[in-house]
Amino acid sequence: MSKLEYLKTFVTFNDDASLLSVSPDWSDGIDLNLEFRHQVIDSLTLETSVAPAMMKALLKAEVEYCEKSWCGTPQLRKLASVFHELTDYQYVDLYNACASKSYDIENCL
To answer: Which of 17, 40, 47, 103 is the most buried (most CB within 10 A)?
Structure first.
């Protein structure tokens, strides 16, 4: 299985271990899961089949990272641009709450 195939499969998981693996891990003062989370986000397209729980975890994690790091990332903007389509507009309130924490996802719809 190629890396891209693995990432496309990974986003369909919604078990605790998978969701935790994309959450920020600040144990060494840096987000140890950042690189993997960005690889997952970079693999997303509008045609990706994805678990809603994974999309929620990715959005929360990336917003937390951007908030703590005082930065915006291309991955946050990409995630924001596909979030509603991939979740069938089920989590508008979550998206709006995240948007109020990070202005980097404004105008990404």
So the answer is: 40
